[in-house]
Write a structure and sequence with these properties.
By secondary structure, the chain is mainly alpha-helical. The chain has helices at residues 4-26, 28-39, 44-70, 74-92, 98-115, 117-128, 132-143, 146-196, 204-207, 214-234, 237-243, 248-256, 258-272, 278-298, 305-332, 337-391, 397-400. Helix content is 84%, strand content 0%. The radius of gyration is 20 Å and the shape is globular.
């Protein structure tokens, strides 16, 4: 049994950390994309290609980070990733050439693999066991405001300090706030993990046995569709809003509300989670995201539908980000959870990686209308594969236990 105080000492520090790391180096990209395009002189496709590279690196390294966490190196992975990110943000503030931009975002992908949701949720699953779902939800409730922090702060800081100054401030936040909280939370997590965590398999081949199930691949397709749909929109959110006819200030305000809508969705999930299955929650979210794309498409004729889009997209994506670890544990078990979640993250983060450049290329061919049409279709793929994952759920106790 985990003491209530110990639970708080792990969850609340991680909640603050996740809010800030997502704000400082994930959402800073879409928040600063228009500014970089104007001031650096790089095309939208070139810029988003760097973000795609970063997320690809993060996806490839996710199983490695998960394996290290399984084997007890949580503090090294989490704190080390944050420290690396802070240094890279300082270097990003000095970028002049496109090759420098790409090298730094490549390295930021390494930092992301050890600091974003996958790594954090794996640590929580190891040290809190059955209580991890509530902990993950609480962390995600706070981190849902990352976009709300990032978009306005990047806009405000850029007005007064320029984008380079804004990036330096973000780096300082990681050093001064995030790293100490990571060390504090990981210290308490390490104290309770031995009594909760299942011992990892001795070799990577055994650890990766979930890959041999059809459920794994169906979940991978489902998770990839989540990421593809949401990142297609988020990575180009301000240009898409402008294309729908919104003024810059209104577009920033609408983008900033995506986070609160994620939080609203997660609060709603908390209120019904004891009465509704994980499968039902997942399916409802995919339907919500599909309807969000429809509302955004029609917003060209009725701008007020942007509010509907933000509410449906934010809540659907927000709940799915919380429920993913629960779905993995429910369908594939907690043994070697870090490796399993990391392997699944290749598809999830890979979808996020492809989306920015894919949206740029589609925009060049058919404008943002065509991008939005794709976001109406992709959630249907996710819904179908999620339903099939539960239909073919493995019965092997070694996987589901």
């Amino acid at each position: 049994m985990i003491a209530k105080g110990t639970f708080r000492r792990i969850v609340w520090p991680f909640a603050v950390v996740e809010t800030l790391v997502w704000a400082c180096y994930y959402y800073s990209f879409p928040a600063l994309l228009p500014t970089w395009e104007a001031e650096l002189g790089f095309s939208k496709a070139v810029l988003t290609g760097a973000f795609t590279l970063s997320l690809t690196v993060s996806a490839v390294l996710a199983p490695v980070a998960g394996r290290l966490i399984d084997r007890g190196y949580s503090r090294v992975v989490f704190a080390g990733g944050a420290a690396l990110a802070a240094v890279l943000l300082l270097l990003l503030s000095q970028v002049r050439d496109v090759w420098q931009f790409y090298v730094i975002w490549f390295a930021l992908g390494v930092a992301m693999s050890g600091t974003l949701y996958e790594a954090c949720f794996t640590i929580l699953t190891h040290c809190l066991g059955a209580r991890a779902r509530r902990a993950i939800t609480m962390v995600s409730l706070a981190a849902g405001f990352a976009g709300t922090v990032s978009f306005p702060s990047a806009h405000f800081l850029t007005q007064f300090l320029g984008w380079r100054g804004a990036i330096v401030i973000f780096a300082g936040v990681v050093v001064v706030v995030c790293i100490p909280l990571i060390l504090y939370g990981c210290h308490h997590a390490a104290r309770v993990a031995p009594a909760i965590a299942r011992p990892p398999s001795a070799n990577p081949r055994a650890a990766a046995r979930a890959v041999r199930t059809v459920t794994f691949w169906l979940l991978a397709l489902s998770f990839t569709s989540i990421a593809l749909d949401h990142t297609l929109l988020v990575s180009h959110l301000l240009p898409i809003m402008a294309d729908r006819g919104l003024a810059v200030g209104t577009a920033v305000a609408a983008a900033s509300m995506m986070g609160p809508m994620q939080v609203a969705g997660r609060l709603l999930m908390l209120s019904v989670e004891h009465r509704v299955s994980t499968r039902m929650i997942c399916c409802t979210c995919f339907v919500s995201m599909g309807l969000a794309g429809t509302a955004l498409y029609l917003a060209g004729m009725a701008p007020g539908l942007v509010i509907v889009f933000v509410a449906l997209q934010g809540s659907g994506a927000g709940v799915l980000s919380v429920i993913r670890p629960t779905a993995v544990a429910e369908l594939l078990g907690r043994t070697d959870f870090g490796v399993t979640a990391g392997l699944l993250a290749i598809g999830f983060v890979g979808g996020s990686a492809v989306a920015p450049i894919l949206a740029s290329l589609i925009w060049q061919v058919g404008g943002y209308d065509l991008v939005i049409i794709l976001t109406m279709i992709v959630p249907l793929v996710g819904l179908t594969s999620a339903l099939a994952a539960w239909r073919f759920r493995p019965r092997d106790a070694a996987l589901t236990g």
